[in-house]
Amino acid sequence: MAEMKPNSVAVFNSNDIYPISADSTLPFAQHRDIFYLSGVDQEESVLLLFPDAPYESQREILFLRETNDHIAVWEGEKLTKERAFQVSGIRTVYWLQDFHKVLNEMMTYAETMYINTNEHYRATVETETREARFVKWWKERYPAHNVAKSNPILQRLRSVKESEEIDLIQHACDITEKGFRRLLGFVKPNVTEYEIEAELAHEFIRNRSKGFAYTPIIASGNNANVLHYIENNQQCKAGDLILLDVAAEYANYSSDMTRTIPVSGRFSERQKAVYNAVLRVKNEATKMLTPGTLWKQYHIEVGKIMTSELLGLGLLDKADVQNENPEWPAYKKYFMHGTSHHMGLDTHDYGLLHEPMKPNMVFTVEPGIYIPNEKFGIRLEDNVVVQEKGEPFNLMRNIPVEVDEIETLMNE
C-alpha cells in the first residue's frame, strides 16, 4: 500500500477452480498474490486495498464466498468472517455478493485502479484467468479511471523474503531431503522412474507437504538430455544415471532440488569426472550470488567457468571457444539453460532480473552438462538465500551432493 499512487485502489482475485470435463476439476491452487497479501487460501475470494479511502474500514476489505451448513457438509468448512479476520488480520469482511456494490462506492472516491496482470518473464498464459476476466469487466465498467499495474510492486515485494518465508522454504527443503535420502536406499537396477516418483510422493505427503512443488522430472539414462522430461515411465538400467529434479512444497512455498545418482550405486570414472565438473561450477556460481550482482552479468561469468570445465573434459577445444558466436557461446552446446532463478511461493518466483540482487532473495543454483552422445546428463541444484555480506546461505546444505556421500548411502 505504501507503494501505491495517491487515491488509488488495488484488487486481487483468487484463481478459478479449473474444469477437466463432466463434473471433474483440477485441485484448487490459490493465486500466489492474494495468498501473499492476505493468507487466504480459498476460491472465490477477493482482496481490495484503498490506502486513502475516506473511512478507515474501507482501506482493507476482504470478500469471501458466503458459507453455510450445507456447504460445510458437502465441501468442507469455509472461512467465516471471524475466521477470515484471524487468518488475514483484515477486519472488514463482506460476502462476495456485495463486491460490485462496494467496489462502485470505492470507484467514486478513487482516481486510479491497480490491475494485477501477469508479467512474469516465463509466463505464457492462454487460459483466461479469473483475474483477467475481472480486468476486462472493470475496464468496460469504469473507463474514466486511470490504470496502474500491481505487478511491478509485487515483483519487488515478493522477491525479498521475510524471515517467516525463509523458514517455510527451509521446511520444504527439509522435507525434500527426507525424500531424497529415502531414494538412496531404494534405487537399484530395473526400478522404474514412476516407482521412484511414488517413493517421493509418499515421503513428502507423510511429512505434511501437499506433494511436489512442480511436476517431477525423473530422467534415467538419455532421458536426462530432455530438459523437461516428465513422462517418468522408463526402467532404470544398470550403469545409467538418474537425473532427479524433484522437490516438495510446504504451506504453498516451493523448494527446487536436482540431484543425479547412479542406478547401480557407483559412478563410472567418466560419470564421476563430469559430475564433479558440474559440482565445481555450482559451488563457484553460488559464491557470486551477493548483493548488487546483476543476473545477466552473473550468467556470463558462470558461462566462463563452465567453458573451462568443458575444455577439461574434452567436450570443447580451444578452436570451439575462439570461433564461438557471442550470442550463443560454445558452452551452450552442453549447458543450454540458465543457472539461477528466483524461488518462493512460485517455483520460478517473482523478481525483476534487470535490478541488482538484494539480501534475503532466494535463488536456485543449477548448472548442468548434457551429453546425448554418451547417453547421460547431469544437473545439480540447491536453493540459497542472499546474505548482507559474504556467500549465500544454502537451504539444502544437509542434502547429500558429494560423490562419496551418495555412493556410501546407496551401498549401506
From TrEMBL:
UniProt KW Amino-acid biosynthesis keyword: no
Signal peptide range: none
GO molecular function: aminopeptidase activity
Enzyme's top EC category: hydrolase
Its EC number(s): 3.4.11.9
InterPro entries associated with the record: Aminopep_P_N, Creatin/AminoP/Spt16_N, Creatinase/aminopeptidase-like, Pept_M24, X-Pro_dipept-like
Classification via Pfam families: AMP_N, Peptidase_M24
Superkingdom of origin: Bacteria
Catalysis: reaction(s): Release of any N-terminal amino acid, including proline, that is linked to proline, even from a dipeptide or tripeptide
Aminopeptidase P N-terminal domain segment(s): 1-124
Cofactor(s) it depends on: Mn(2+)
Keywords from the named record: Aminopeptidase, Hydrolase, Manganese, Metal-binding, Protease
Stated family: Belongs to the peptidase M24B family.
Protein name stated in the entry: Xaa-Pro aminopeptidase
Native species: Flavobacterium chungbukense
Lineage, top ranks: Bacteria, Pseudomonadati, Bacteroidota, Flavobacteriia, Flavobacteriales
